[in-house]
Amino acid sequence: MSDAYRPYLKCIQSTLAACLCLQNFPCQQVERQNKPEIEFKNNPELLLKPILICRSEQEKCYIETSINSVRVSFKIKQTDQLDALLVKKYMAFLMQRAEAVGVLRRVPIEDYDVSFLITNFHCQHYNKQKLIDFIARLVEDINAEIHELKLLVNTRGRAVAADYQKMLSA
To answer: Among residues 8, 2, 6, 14, which one has the least CA distance to residue 60?
Structure first.
């Protein structure tokens, strides 16, 4: 993790540690069902105030908490059209594998690139700290992967331009 990125991730990790105090809470409308309240928002008294953590205007984290679930959404930094395209394609790749990840949502909330939904069952099944570390590590890896992909695309573009220039000059 780069030194510039460390305070942002540490803030997200400490906020998630405070937010992941979830408990089993059955649905009040339908008997014998347990739905994530943050997704359905049927009972406003069960929802807490959302938290927005911004590193910049283009890079932010939005944490929504309820009594039995937490939704964490990330906006990945996109400085140009290439970044936007790479983020879109990489997120589509990840979202197709959402079932394998478990806490990853197939569709992020509006204006964000990736969302996670953590329920009380996830907290019971997995270690809370490992969930937090997993999300932080995944976001860090996404940023590193996007940066690496951008470098590869630019390198390949330079090589193609050089070959094309050789063809024209010959």
So the answer is: 8
HEC profile for the chain? CCCCCHHHHHHHHHHHHHHCCCCCCCCCCCCCCCCCHHHHCCCHHHECCCEEEECCCCCEEEEEEECCEEEEEEECCCCCHHHHHHHHHHHHHHHHCHHHHCCECCCCCCCCCEEEEEEHHHHHHCCHHHHHHHHHHHHHHHHHHHHHHHHHHHHHHHHHHHHHHHHHHC
Q: Distance between CA 5 and CA 8 in Å, rounded?
A: 6
CA–CA gap between residue 103 and residue 118 (Å, rounded): 6
What tokens were used for 37?
Answer: 């309240």
User: Digits of tens for pLDDT over the chain (170 positions)?
Assistant: 578 889 999 999 999 999 999 988 887 777 777 889 898 888 889 899 999 999 999 999 999 999 999 999 999 999 999 999 999 999 999 999 998 988 999 999 999 999 999 999 999 999 999 999 999 999 999 999 999 999 999 999 999 999 999 999 87
